[in-house]
Amino acid sequence: MAIIYQNMYGWILDHWQLTADSFEDVDSEDSTVTNFSYKKDMFEINSQFIMDSQFESKIHVQERVEDTIVNRKKRKRKSVLNDGEIKAKTYHDKIIEVIVHAYKTLLDGSKDMKLFRDLGKSLDNNVAARKIAANSGPGDKLRELCYTDISDLDIETVTLKSHGVYDDLCNKLVKNCSFPIKVKIKDDFYLLPAECSFIMGDTENLKYFSTILGRNKFDFILLDPPWENKSVKRKKQYWTLDNKELFKIPVSELSAPGCVIGVWVTNKMKQNDFVIQELFPFWNVDFITTWYWIKVTKTGSTVLDIMSEHKKTYEILILGKCKHTEMKDVSDEKIDSNTEEEHTKNDICKNMKCKENLSEKINSKSLDGICNESTILPASLNNDICNESTILPASLNNDNLPLEMTMMSVPSSIHSMKIPLQDIMKPYLPETPNCLEIFARNLTPGWCCYGNEVFKHQHMDYFEVFTKDT
Asked: Per residue in 43-84, pLDDT tens?
């Protein structure tokens, strides 16, 4: 199970432990069974994210790395903020109290569990984690295997076998059995979790699979789009997708009544606005709330300055619920502006009300010493924080997803690897939910996943053998 602690404001997750639980007793070629997990070094995030040159400089001026930056001066901005920057700053200022308060309560409530440790002088700028990220995995191989031309709509279904060898799994519905297995696909080996299913295909082909996946079937649909980014586009670091392509995803056809929709976005306001104001109305989805994933080191410190208005230590998950009416024709180039404006206004009002209610619970004095320019993370917690560690989020139905929740974990060093959500979402879905992830890069036990790199993070480079007593 990924959840190792929770309170009324959120959860602390152990991503590594979930993979260890998911890949027990994998059949080996010699007829023995082996336990696998993600490599622990992938999660050896011991210090904040900084450049090597910055790290070396910091070592020279400090006897040991503390949680605050010494003699840090705020750069003066030479130009006036534009409208977009003002909007982003206003949004950040609004949500940061919620995030900081949740972060503190999670750390304070779990301190007796000793989930985080003092690494002393052993900090090394996350060398082991960065090495795995730079030298592991299939690269772009899987995306290069995908093709978009589907001439035969009679989609083939493939049931995998342990130690099977497969050449072409593109545009096929692939299913695994009730236990985790190791298979060879093309020239590489992969570990696949139990009872997973997937389709490796481009986004534009998803419309062909809505029938075979099951019309009105899914109770939870999660999307992690490869959002366009000017820096990424310029450096050609990875594949991105035009926002317009997201309108082609047949959400209404795939979703069951009351289906919860989750969309990961970066911290760019344009993406947030696009999802809430354009994409959700087009999909006939009502915006419900926003959750935050805050990334921390093995010491419990945030990986970036928690108060920074530029690089953020958190990512955003936007959640909504399908109204389950007919989706608009994809050929519509423009959503009715009056309807969109009214819909957005109602959603924003609802969310602001949620934030105001939660802010009433925050004692601003408890933020003293943490919310200042020089702070990366608190070395210790204030004593005046309210003790709410025994209060858990109510197991509500999906009409009442808890609002403004925070998820906290040590992140993987692998690009685009998100935290697992199955344990978090379980109380808010049917007893045996059907879940679909679109733009998936790893497989989830019991879920169906779709994407052109759908099992990328199942590559054997990311795994190692482990024993339960280690």
From this structure: 888 877 655 544 444 544 444 444 443 344 445 555 687 777
Cβ-Cβ contacts under 8 Å for 299 (sequence gap 6 or more): 46, 47, 67, 116, 117, 118, 119, 377
Task: Provide the pairing of β-strand 463-465 with 36-38.
Answer: antiparallel
Q: Kindly tell me the burial class for residue 325, based on how many C-beta atoms sit within 10 Å of its own C-beta (0-12, 13-18, 19 or more).
A: exposed
For residue 47, count CB atoms less than 10 angstroms from its CB and return exposed for 0-12, middle for 13-18, buried for 19 or more.
Answer: buried
Rounded to whole angstroms, how far apart are CA atoms 327 and 311? 36
Neighbours of 53 (CB within 10 A): 8
Q: How many CB atoms are closer than 10 A to CB 201?
A: 24
Structure token digits, residue 230: 């000017």
Unique residue bearing structure tokens 């007796």: 112
Phi, psi of 382 (to 5 degrees): -70, 155
Task: Please count the other Cβ atoms lying within 10 Å of the Cβ belonging to residue 217.
Answer: 15
pLDDT < 70: residue spans in the chain: 30, 49-79, 119-123, 148-154, 229-239, 324-399, 469-470
Q: Which helix (H) or strand (E) is 204 found in, with range?
A: none
Bridge partners (DSSP) of residue 436 are: 221, 448
272 contacts 265 by C-beta, under 8 angstroms = yes
pLDDT tens column, 302-326:
988 888 877 888 999 999 999 865 5
pLDDT > 90: what percent of the chain? Answer: 43
Name residue 123's amino acid: L
Amino acid at 56: E
Q: What's the pTM? A: 0.80
